[in-house]
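Field reference: sequence -> structure
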Amino acid sequence: MKWFVIACCLAAQCAFADTAISLAGTWRFALDPQNVGISESWFNKSLPETVMLPGSTDSNRKGTRNTRKPDLSHPSRLYEYTGPAWYQREITIPREWKGKRITLFLERCHWETQAWLDGKPCGMQDSLCVPHVHELSASPGHHRLTIRVDNTIKYNVGSWAHSITEETQTNWNGIVGRMELQATPSTYIENVQVYPESKGIR
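Structure field:
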């Protein structure tokens, strides 16, 4: 019999952060229904609207107003939108964080996120079930943080999938839960795998 344990960096990031700064509040915002934001370098521009995060495009009344008669068999969105949406704000990295590993922690996103710091890409995450964590590699000081959230259906998960359909939570766009900058030691454990000796175990 073999036991297998994985402790991944996401769990460590959540539980053992030395310091965290909340990013909840007002963010600049823009919908991108034509999907031109990346080609037009919106991460280098100041976005024109504002929203409150944590939140969704629905809670911020962004998108197309749903005027259809409600279907009582499942939830109905008040404001519908499918596609990329951009979120942006200025952040300040404290001097005390110099030399630390600095990450952007987004507890619950829907669905894919890409991040830029001062116009430089910080990677992509597309999980529906675990936090999105982006390495920022930031020095102390003031920076512009831009996040692109895209709720376009990427994978065929079925027409009744509760994670992205009207059957449960709808295909919302946004970031909810904890939103933080986190600082941890520059040396850290990313992945631990434990394989106990199996002799004599039945």
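Note: Confidence is low (pLDDT under 50) at residues 1-17.
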